[in-house]
Design a protein that fits this description.
The structure holds three protein chains of three kinds.
Chain A lengths: L15 E2 L16 E5 L9 H5 L5 E4 L2 E5 L9 H5 L5 E5 L3
Antiparallel strand pairs in A: 2-5, 3-4
Chain B lengths: L3 H4 L17 H13 L4 E5 L3 H6 L11 E3 L5 H17 L8 E7 H6 L2 H9 L5 E6 L39 H6 L5 E6 L3 H13 L4 E6 L3 H5 L5 H10 L6 E4 L2 E4 L10 H4 L12 H27 L17
Parallel strand pairs in B: 1-2, 1-3, 3-4, 4-6, 5-6
Antiparallel strand pairs in B: 5-7, 7-8
Helix pairs in contact in B: 2-8, 4-6
Chain C lengths: L1 E4 L1 H12 L3 E4 L6 H12 L6 E4 L3 H12 L5 E5 L1 H6 L1 H9 L5 E6 L13 H4 L7 E4 L3 H18 L3 E6 L8 E4 L3 H8 L16 E2 L8 H13 L1 H16 L6 E4 L6 E5 L3 H14 L4 E6 L1 E3 L3 H8 L4 E6 L10 H10 L7 E6 L9 H13 L6 E3 L4
Parallel strand pairs in C: 2-3, 2-4, 4-5, 5-7, 6-7, 11-12, 11-14, 14-15, 15-16
Antiparallel strand pairs in C: 1-8, 6-13, 10-12
Classes of the chains: A alpha+beta, B alpha/beta, C alpha/beta.
Chain lengths: 95, 325, 384
């Protein structure tokens, strides 16, 4: 999150946002009370968890799931619920 | 046929870091729509609501496409202005790209306060896609009933109390209202059926006139269900025929999903806290039975429409395109 | 070119010459003809404008905002209930700093319904962040609508140009118009702040702000309006040099040695000029001060000009119900409050619902202001 807030003179003319990357500063992973644990070995790479994650927190590279983005994962548990191979388990968030 | 591996090659145009509730169906719908829309360049508008709030609190924008928000009832009328600007630039030769315009609004901004603007924009045949992300109540202001709320649902303005068992009216049929405008394409879908949703998005965006999608998006907070159940409920909605997946194109109705086994409406209602009060009382049972009757009647009617309007278009010719523009 | 045009016809003609990119408008008396006449220009191919015949004034302003957000030069026209209906969107347009220009045939607000001219509609929107110009004649309306486009685009603020409903909108005047080329050269090309259709560089327009940022955005918008007066004066000068006609923000008519003056906006200025002349013939030292720009409010000029008179009668063609006097009266009172020596201020409300305001009425007002005696706070002229 922004540490320093802008003064009115520093704002753009008109209520607009031009920095489309700033949202990445909002680390919604901090919301979690449960965390998904992915069993990589058993994963069939069907990508069903990827298409159903509301937060784009399933990382896919070159057509393959490579992991879960814990910076943003909110722990909703959808991925665990939809996985046809049941390779994602929900655990209590440790931190 | 669309494959997940193909979609996975596209960019995530709805970024992580947005403030939707865990398990939010609406966030998922928007993400899926923007994945499906690629590679077409897309410019978007949205109504005030959950989506607007969780995706655009200054200085954060989850949208990686151009987006304008003006007010609650104005997703369609803003899109109309954007479309007019686009037509102007095209006419003057200042734009060459084939840009698509998508307006996003909830059921509040579509069925109720935004209905006038939607009707006007459809009637004038602006070429844009209007997406209603439908969670069946005014969720952002704290779960108040809308005309999309189903019979018997407990909302804060149709609460289940000692005398009244939740909302007293059936939901409005927005698809029929939109179809009455003779749109180029209209479709009803939900987030579980990602291929159906993606196909419809692409058909809608490529349609030669105004198009509309009614997307059911479960809301863990408003419907009172587990966040992890969002997709399960989305599927049951279609399997109970509570939320038929169908489309209107070229004057024809087409049902896109026939459940192998049609489930009783209770299967949809049971996992949701907003219907809990209907279980275990005589009055509640009456409401459930009326809901079942309504769902069955609509499902049967839809089949009749499919049969009736399945032949060649009754007035012949192709899908109505913009006659002037 | 010399033409005979009503206010509406002159507005539509000016719009044709401006040739805006997009016009989204809805008909309402007494501004309907502006939209109608402009539609025929569209149908006859005399303009390049994309005309959107929206289904309500609220959608008119919204579509204007959508188009302006794409960098288009956008105009519209309305009045009364229509202006009231688009009220929430006026604030949106100003907050987004979009240079939309709106022609208004100023009319009363219901209930009861009345289609005739007064300033209720425009003045009710005075806090919206829009610039507001009140014209005395059809000629001034034509000139001002053209100027307003340039002013709005420099100030990055929307502006409305008001002519009194029916009194100016429907009455024919001899006006001098410019060539299309002159108008377009004067205006040049718009220089938008941003363009939604530039999809390769996406932006988000109209975010939500929490308690941490809303105030700063508003402060910035207010500053925008604060800096607008010099822009208006500069463009006024440029217009004057190029076209030979100019209108000061505040105009003094025969005020040099006046014992009493009236402060007026709109067509009643013409009426007051006649009254001043007649009274001057009788040896009375009276004058009129015409306020042409209501927003931004030229407080420095108001202090300077009004401060030297003994008595000022402020005419309002609108009443802010149970405010301390009419709207212009309260604003001027506030402006003059700190002066060590300030004039006596009298509040007059006239002409509501198109009620006739004749030179005789103005003369009566002058006599009262000269006498320095007024029993009630607000004198409602001509009410039975």
């Amino acid at each position: 999150m922004d540490k320093k807030l802008k003064s009115w003179q520093e704002l753009p003319c008109g209520a607009i946002i031009t920095d489309m990357g700033a949202v990445k500063g909002n680390k919604t992973g901090a919301w979690r009370s449960m965390r998904p644990i992915w069993n990589k070995e058993k994963c069939r790479q069907c990508l069903v968890c990827w298409i159903y994650c509301p937060d784009s927190a399933i990382t896919v590279k070159e057509g393959k799931m490579v992991g879960i983005d814990y910076t943003y994962c909110k722990g909703c548990g959808i991925c665990a619920q939809v996985c046809p191979a049941k390779v994602i388990d929900m655990e209590k968030e440790r931190k | 046929m669309l494959k997940l591996q193909d979609l996975a090659k596209n960019k995530e145009l709805f970024s992580s870091g947005h403030r939707a509730c865990a398990g939010c169906g609406e966030a998922l719908a928007v993400r899926q729509i923007l994945l499906a829309a690629q590679p077409r360049p897309v410019v978007t508008t949205m109504a005030t609501g959950c989506l607007e709030i969780f995706s655009s609190i200054y200085p954060h924008s989850a949208w990686q496409v151009p987006m304008i928000h003006t007010a609650f009832e104005t997703a369609a009328s803003t899109a109309a202005g954007v479309e007019a600007a686009y037509r102007f630039y095209k006419k003057m030769g200042r734009i060459e790209d084939d840009i698509r315009i998508i307006a996003f609004a909830g059921d509040g901004g579509t069925y109720d306060i935004g209905l006038q603007g939607l009707s006007g924009a459809l009637e004038r045949r602006h070429r844009f896609l209007y997406v209603c992300t439908n969670n069946e109540a005014y969720m952002n202001t704290g779960i108040q009933r809308s005309s999309a709320t189903p019979l018997g649902a407990d909302t804060t303005t149709s609460p289940a109390g000692k005398v009244l068992p939740g909302k007293g009216e059936h939901r409005k049929n927005i698809m029929e209202i939109v179809i009455a405008h003779d749109v180029a394409y209209a479709g009803q879908t939900t987030v579980f059926f990602w291929r159906d949703l993606a196909t419809k998005v692409q058909k809608a965006l490529d349609a030669p006139g105004p198009s509309f999608l009614n997307v059911l998006v479960p809301c863990p907070l408003g419907w009172r269900h587990q966040p992890s159940d969002t997709l399960k409920l989305s599927k049951i909605a279609a399997d109970t025929c509570y939320w038929p997946l169908y489309e209107f194109e070229n004057g024809r109705y087409k049902i896109n999903y026939e459940p192998q086994k049609k489930l009783p409406i209770e299967e949809f209602l049971k996992p949701q806290g907003r219907f809990r009060h209907l279980f275990g009382t005589e009055e509640g049972a009456k409401v459930i039975s009326e809901l079942q009757r309504f769902v069955d009647e609509q499902w049967e009617l839809l089949h009749k429409k499919q049969a009736l309007f399945s032949g060649p278009r009754h007035c012949e010719g192709e899908a109505r395109s913009n006659p002037v523009h | 070119m010399i033409l005979a045009k009503t206010g509406n016809e002159a507005f539509a003609y000016a719009m044709k010459q401006i040739n805006p990119d997009v016009v989204a408008a809805y008909p309402i008396t007494p501004s309907t003809e502006i939209v109608q006449i402009f539609s025929s220009y569209v149908s006859d191919g005399e303009v390049d404008t994309e005309f959107v015949a929206v289904e309500s004034e609220h959608s008119a302003m919204t579509a204007c905002i959508g188009a302006a957000a794409c960098g288009c030069r956008v105009m519209t026209a309305t009045a009364s209930q229509g202006l009231a209906l688009m009220h929430e969107m006026l604030f949106v347009a100003a907050g987004l700093r979009l240079p939309i220009v709106m022609a208004v045939a100023s009319r009363s607000l219901s209930s009861p319904l009345n289609i005739h001219g007064d300033h209720s509609d425009s003045v009710a929107s005075r806090d919206s962040g829009w610039m507001q110009f009140f014209c005395e004649t059809v000629q001034e309306g034509y000139d001002t609508l053209i100027q307003a486009v340039k002013i709005a685009e420099r100030a990055y603020l929307p502006g409305l140009v008001a002519i009194d409903g029916f009194i100016l909108s429907h009455c024919q005047e001899r006006i001098e118009t410019f060539t299309d080329r002159d108008v377009r050269e004067f205006l040049g090309k718009p220089k938008p702040n941003y363009n939604l259709l530039d999809w390769r560089n996406p932006i988000l327009i109209g975010p939500a702000t929490l308690q941490d940022y809303y105030f700063e955005f508003k402060r910035s918008e207010i500053e925008g309006m604060n800096r607008t007066l010099p822009i208006i004066q500069e463009i006024q000068e440029e217009f004057g040099k190029r076209f030979g006609r100019s209108y000061p923000v505040l105009e003094e008519y025969r005020c040099e040695d006046a014992d009493a003056v009236l402060l007026v906006m709109g067509s009643a200025c013409g009426t007051c000029r006649v009254a001043v002349d007649r009274l001057r013939e009788k040896g009375k030292k009276v004058g009129m001060v015409k306020l042409r720009v209501f927003r931004p409010l030229a407080h420095t000029l108001l202090k300077k000009i009004l401060g030297r008179f003994k008595a000022v009668g402020v005419l309002d063609r609108v009443d802010a119900v149970n405010s301390y006097g009419g709207p212009l009266f309260t604003e001027v009172g506030s402006v003059l409050y700190d002066l060590a020596e300030r004039p006596r201020l009298f509040s007059y409300v006239y002409g509501l619902g198109g009620r006739e305001f004749a030179p005789e009425d103005a003369m009566t007002v002058f006599e009262q202001v000269l006498s320095g005696k007024k029993d009630e706070l607000v004198t409602y002229i001509g009410v039975r």
